[in-house]
């Protein structure tokens, strides 16, 4: 994971297969704090389906965008204080 701007991080898991993308995204989200975003680049179709479902269940907001035929980008927003 690398910081690309204030409160904005990037994680590139392209070339990895399950369960590694899921594990790395989960670890990254544990590090982030409130109001931070994580941009994930991914190319594994099962991970593209499963990661958003699993982290939305934990209360994160996820936006999925198809970049090209083989690549997607997920923007994950951390939980807000209630």
Per DSSP E runs of 2 or more residues, the count of β-strands stands at 5
Radius of gyration: 12 Å
pLDDT < 50 stretches: none
- Tell me the CATH superfamily: TusA-like domain
Describe this structure as you would to a colleague.
This protein is an alpha+beta fold. It has a single domain, classed as 2-Layer Sandwich (Translation Initiation Factor IF3), CATH 3.30.110.40. It has helices at 20-31, 45-57; strands at 2-5, 8-12, 37-42, 61-66, 72-77. It has a 5-stranded mixed beta sheet with strand order 1-2-3-5-4, with helices on one face. A hairpin with a 2-residue loop joins strand 1 and strand 2. Helix 1 packs parallel to helix 2.
Walk me through the topology:
Blueprint: E1 2-5, E2 8-12, H1 20-31, E3 37-42, H2 45-57, E4 61-66, E5 72-77
Parallel strand pairs: 2-3
Antiparallel strand pairs: 1-2, 3-5, 4-5
Helix pairs in contact: 1-2
In short:
The chain has 82 residues and is an alpha+beta fold. The chain has two helices and five strands, in the order E-E-H-E-H-E-E.
Primary descriptors:
82 residues, alpha+beta, 2 helices, Translation Initiation Factor IF3, 5-stranded mixed β-sheet, 5 strands, 30% helix
């Amino acid at each position: 994971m690398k910081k690309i701007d204030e409160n904005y991080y990037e994680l590139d898991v392209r070339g990895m297969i399950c369960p590694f993308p899921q594990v790395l995204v989960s670890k990254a989200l544990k590090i982030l704090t409130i109001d931070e975003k994580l941009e994930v680049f991914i190319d594994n179709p099962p991970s593209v389906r499963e990661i958003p479902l699993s982290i939305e269940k934990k209360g994160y907001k996820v936006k999925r965008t198809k970049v090209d035929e083989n690549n997607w980008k997920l923007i994950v927003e951390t939980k807000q204080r209630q």
